[in-house]
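Before relying on records like the one below, remember that each one covers exactly one chain. Contacts with other chains, cofactors or solvent are not represented anywhere in the record.
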Amino acid sequence: MLKCRATWQKLAPLARSFTPWGRKPNVSKFKDPCGGVPIAQMSSNIPGRSSENMIYYLLVGGTFVGSGIYVYRHLQEDKARFNERMALVLKPVNEKPFTDSSIYDKSPVAKTEVSPVVEEQGPKPPEESAGAVTEELQKVSTEEAFKEHAEITTSSSEPISVEKNEQPEGAQEATVVQARPEIPPHAPYLLIGGGTASFAAARSIRARDPGARVLIVSEEAVLPYMRPPLSKELWFSDDPNVKETLRFKQWNGKERSIYFQPLSFYVSPQDLPYVENGGVAVLNDRKVVHMDARGNKVRLDDGSEISYEKCLIATGGTPRNLPSIERAGEEVKKRTTLFRKIEDFKSLETISRDVKSVTIIGGGFLGSELACALGRRAQETSLEVNQIFPERGNMGKILPEYLSNWTTEKVKKEGVNVMPDSVVKSVNYENGRLSIKLKDGRMVKTDHIVAAVGLEPNVELAKSGGLEVDSDFGGFRVNSELQARSNIWVAGDAACFYDIKLGRRRVEHHDHAVVSGRLAGENMTGASKPYWHQSMFWSDLGPYVGYEAIGIVDSSLPTVGVFAKATAKDTPKAATEESGTGIRSESETEATASGVGISTKAVSTLNTPQQGDDYGKGVIFYLRDKVIVGVILWNVFNRMPIARKIIKDGEEHADLNEVAKLFNIHDD
């Protein structure tokens, strides 16, 4: 209004000069020739009818119209600014300015009643009378702003009354809560599977792309964890609450958790799209049931969809079951454990304390490890532990026959009733117990069965995703860079990859999951590296007998072994004390054998193993076309880089004596 008043003060003199009653008499420029006073020339026309007066009226009228337009526009602008400022006052702290677009249509918001604060007005000063219209408009705008804001921030359809000069006690500011979806609709890096391979890939992605947003979709209800302790160290724990803590002591006495990282390492899936520096989120209890490789999106079991830019499939595998158990009925299935997950460990640990007999079917890595673990418990309790398998000895598909038989004797000494050359024909539930009938007619009575007969890779997404499954080895068929499609990679147990030295393979071991997951993560960030690394695997039959292996170890291949007498340092326990970790692959390096010297105590001839020998420690070479394709280090530790280099070189060795000397197994 001050602007309007100033404008009028400037225009008023001009208006007065143009009006007939405001003008001075028109004095002629010429004087009277007689020397009299100047003659005044006054208009004798009727006011308003001369063209001169009409121009004056038009100027004055235009001035008033322009002033009115000017005032109206400023009032409208003042009203808009006032509404914006009121919205800012009502806006919650640290929120964006209030707009309709800042509210999710489906977000539930608490009902909030808002009343404006209106101060009592005293008598108006005379000079404010000209702004009465503006003040009234401001009051109306105030009420409208409060009403509109209250209607937006309430979930009720009832109108909210706003009265002047009233404010309820304890009135709170209205808040606008932006609901974040539980499942993010988009993830730049989507990892399907919550196991070791996915975790290794996530760490690798974040290492190369620190701002990456990585989403892991896991069927399990827990964070990523390591599986080897489930059949090893956890069974030897003295902690009665090991099922809850899932912490264990390694052979070297150090304690650690089964989980790779604590909860604080991860971000929640809801916050993943909004975290400034990205992070790794785990979406638990969800399964990907459909993959649209062309549309770059997946569908979950609850119907939700997630789009991605790059995707890793690390779905692992499902434990196989015996057909005889599948046909046996629900009572038998309820008393059978397919050992794979944390829940399986917890269940079997409880069962082994409550029943009188447990029978393990399978003589491979998992079956033999569980047999030794339960056998150790059987020495302290009255538990009976049986182990049934069709091979002639423990790990008969991997170890040479002489070493398999020696291992079987070791397992028996742990308190296990080992039954080799045994094939299960049928299983029945009778009188509260399970009856296992073998093909040779023998009958085994037991309370619980643990089936450890291999793993079936999870390839359900192959059909919907248009991905190839290898017909020989199973699993998703990928190239040497672990790619199934241009933006889809596969790692871990489910990957059937091309080994540039050993050909196409599929590996089911912890170290392979770590290495392949790490490589896939690097390639997802543009590394384009082939799978050069030869992953290793290991198995411990308790704290005093263990081995590490690499390459193709198949008992059907020709083997050559050299052994020596073991010392106190040649045990898994001593190896972990030296390396500082029970997961021996974690201490692996890319070192080569170039810096390893040959011991002066090394023998020049290879031993021919004989039945009954004490195989304290040694090296076994697996040959294919006179080329070493696999190596087992029996109670020999920290020599895996040498074995890896031998396989990587892929040379034909005429004399394996010199190769054996590289491992220095005759050192004290």
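The two ends are 102 Å apart (CA to CA).
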